Structures are given as C-alpha cells and as structure tokens.
Amino acid sequence: MFHAETLAEWLSFIEAQHPQGQAGIELGLERVGWVLAAMGLSSRLPFPVITVGGTNGKGSSVAMLEAILRAAGHRVGAYTSPHLLRYNERVRLDGKAVADELLVRALAQVEAVRGTVPLTYFEFGTLAALAVLVGARVDVAILEVGMGGRLDAVNVVDADAALITNVALDHTEWLGADREAIGREKAGILRAGQWAVVAEAEPPLSVLDHAQGLGLRLWRRGIDFDLTREERGWIWRGPQDAYALPLPALPGGHQLDNAAGVVMLLEGLREYLPWTIEHLRTGLAMVRHPGRLECVRQDGVPVWLDVAHNPAGVEALARAMAEQSTQGRTLAVFSALADKDAVGMACALAGQVDAWYVAGLSGPRGREVDALADLLRQVGLPVAGAWPRPAMAYNAALSEAGTGDRLLVFGSFLCVADILDHIHSSDLKA
User: Which of 320, 385, 315, 326 lies closest to 350 in space, CA to CA?
Assistant: First the structure.
C-alpha cells in the first residue's frame, strides 16, 4: 500500500493509477461505489447534497450557491473540478480551499481500503473529497459533476437536489454526438423524489423524458421560473414569488441564466436550508469565481481570462466581450485540447479578435501547436504566431499590445492556469 507525507506525492501517485482508458478517463460507478462502501460511507451522505450538472456554467452556479448559503449562515462544503492553480481549490469549506493535511489524510483513507480496485485520478479525488466533507460535518454539500452525469464518479452520491445548467456539445467521444445523446447522460444525475431544476429554456427532450420516467417534476426556465433584465439589476419570477436582485458579481450576461436556476433550486430547499431575500442579494453581490471573465492588468494592459473550452461556452464569452468597450485591438491567446472543437471555438470569436497567439498544451490530451495554428489559418483567422506554451504566447501578445489594446486568454483550463501562474510569478518578482 502506498504511503506519502505530502499532497504533491499523493497527486503524483494517483495520476499514475489510471485504468486503461482514453487519456485516463474511465467512466462507470462500480469501482468508486465499491470503495465508497469500503470507506464506511453510503450513497446517502449525512447532510443535504446538491448536485450540479450540465455542460457550461456548473462552476459559476456552484459558486453562487456557496455564496448565498454562506450568507444565510450555513456551513457549506463544495467539490468542483478542475482546479486552476492548486489542487486544494477543488475541495472548499466555507469558501476556502482545504489544507494539504486534510487531503493527504483523505487520500490515505481511500488507498487503505481500495485493495486492488483501480481508480482514476478523478475517482480518487472524488472519494477523498467526500471523506473531507463528511469529516467536516458541513450543513450542506454542493458537488459539481465532472463529465456527463450518469457514469460520473460524483453520481455515486444520491443527492437531495439537482441543477442541470444546460446541455451543449462537449466530450462527444464519451457522451454522444448530439444534444439528445448528451442530455441522456446529463439527466443521469436525477433521482426520484428530488427537487430538480433545468436552467435552460429548451433542454433536450431526452432530459425531460428521463425525468418523466422517474416520476420526477422538473422546474424549468420559461415555464416555472424566468427573469427580466433591468438597468441596474434583474427580476427573478417564480411560481409564487418575484425578487428584485442585484446583478451577480460574475461578469457576463449569461450569468443571469445561471443565477435564475440557482434561485429556483434554493426555493425548493428553503425548508431545509433557510434563507431570506437579503441573503440572495448578499450572495450574488459577493460571489467570486476565478478564471471566469476574470480581468487583471499587467503593464497597463487589461487581460481577460476565461476557461471557456467548447463552442457554446465561447459563444457566451463572445457576447460578454462585446459588452466590454475597447478603443484598440483584441489580441487572443488561445489553446485547446486535442479532443475539443478548436475551430468552432475560434470562429465564435472571429469577428472580435484582431490577432491570434496560438499555444500548445502538453499531456495525453494535448494538441501540437503547429497543427492548431494551421487549423485557424485554414479558416482565415489572422494567426500572429505559434508557441509551445501558453505563457510564451502570452508574453509575445503582451509585448505587442499598444495603448487601448486588450488581451483575451481562453480555450482551456490549462491555458488560463499557465498564464495566471505566470502573472502571479511576475507580480512576486516585481
């Protein structure tokens, strides 16, 4: 049995434990369910659980739920993925990343009971996160689904409530080639007897059919609840009440879609997790989520960073960027994993970007940078050059930025993380 003292050693170990699957991805609940039981835990955790699934907006929705429930005085645990700078970001207690010691202890707990059962990196991390949350005796846990839903490790937990943000094309190799197929996978997080919300107005029929088969009532945007944007805020309208609320502190008009689903979900949980309208307002005004339309300045240049990594996500990013006025050019630093629709992502922003600084990504799902640059050139996009790493492409773009120009970094969590780490390192040296 493996033993280590540091989190870095544990992460290296679990990264090497993947079953034989494509890029270390092996969907299914049998292995993780067996180890969960061996840890003395069941699929029903000893506190209310909210599961958040969908294609885009999951992390932002979790962040809003966290902020509102914390404003209401509840002790909140959260599990999300992937992380940007530190693995600890994945497991949060009352909004703060947990300490290394808690994760080391939880990973050791998983390793002590799994025997010869192989686990993926994500499965190891999910089981450890559940151990941390149970040990912390939180009032409520919010779990973000990793990929799909039906066979995702997070779905080993029977949640009391579920939010499906939206369904778009992503991870098609594993989830299916169209929205209906992907919707069936996303809907796998639903359970009979849950309070369940769908935040998009036109979900795939497969989501609705699955809910009907469970005898489950879905609360749907445009039918059971909706929103109206106003000059300085927005109005949420539900089955019985309407609330005048501030705009979420997360930039982008698409965040109202996420917020509307979040409020509907909280309506159904109010008996178990009490809150007031003031808690809604405080939480929405205080919510933070790094890497989502995050804006920093370096050398006087505004730098926008967003982890959008599929065409639907980049379309939302394009609308948000169009709302931000600029006097000069937009220079994009872009990279994408090999299993992503890079051309679809780039074309969603084509009309707003004056020059593309293309970067490669390493790892089993990485994409060779020259091939990515050629793809963009083939669809007529102005590629300024290609660099092996995002930070190198970023430095080149920053050196070319003039007065009034802005930088946009997007395409992958790995791209944004590399550049955020580079920016932070530069700030420390300054």
Answer: 315
Q: Which amino acid is at 286?
A: M
Strand order in the sheet with 218-220: 96-97, 91-93, 76-79, 140-144, 49-53, 161-164, 195-198, 218-220
CA atoms within 13 A on the CB side of 24: 15
pLDDT in tens, 209-225: 999 999 999 999 999 99
CA-nearest of 381, 320, 321 to 346 is 381
Give the whole-angstrom CA distance, residue 37 versus residue 320.
45
Question: Which tokens go with 337?
Answer: 């994993």
- 267-292: per-residue pLDDT in tens? 999 999 999 999 999 999 999 999 98
Fold of 7-286: UDP-N-acetylmuramoyl-L-alanine:D-glutamate ligase (3.40.1190)
DSSP code of residue 141:
E
CATH 3.90.190.20 fits 294-429, yes or no: yes
For residue 59, what are its two tokens? 């992390």
**Which amino acid is present at 81?**
S
Phi then psi for 300, rounded to 5 degrees? 80, 0
